[in-house]
Design goal:
Blueprint: E1 25-28, E2 31-34, E3 39-42, E4 47-50, E5 55-56, E6 66-67, E7 72-73, E8 86-87
Antiparallel strand pairs: 1-2, 3-4, 5-6, 7-8
InterPro entries: Growth_fac_rcpt_cys_sf, Tyr-kin_ephrin_A/B_rcpt-like
Organism: Magallana gigas
Protein name: Tyrosine-protein kinase ephrin type A/B receptor-like domain-containing protein
């Protein structure tokens, strides 16, 4: 872009750059990746998020987490296996 008879004010000049990935992938360190176990793709925020306590996800590329069976929960977020569901104390 050329500004006739002038120059841009570099102190107030901004640009917006958004990396985009194919459906259900998130940008991690500049690469498009599928969400892995213990995570799910949030279609509202367009990022991979940890499964909350009380849920797990044992597969890649999912859009939700699976609740633990009634009476059990996980101890932490991002549980990648149903075996992380333990009886509540």
């Amino acid at each position: 872009m050329t500004i006739p008879n002038g120059s841009p004010d570099l102190n107030s000049f901004t640009t917006d750059f958004f990396e985009s990935c194919p459906n259900r992938q998130s940008v991690v360190d500049g690469y498009c990746v599928k969400c892995g176990p213990g995570n799910f793709f949030n279609s509202s925020t367009l990022i991979c998020e940890d499964c909350p306590v009380g849920t797990y996800q044992d597969q890649d590329d999912q859009t939700s987490c699976t609740p633990c069976p009634q009476g059990s929960t996980t101890q932490t977020v991002a549980s990648p296996s149903s075996s992380d569901c333990k009886g509540e104390i």
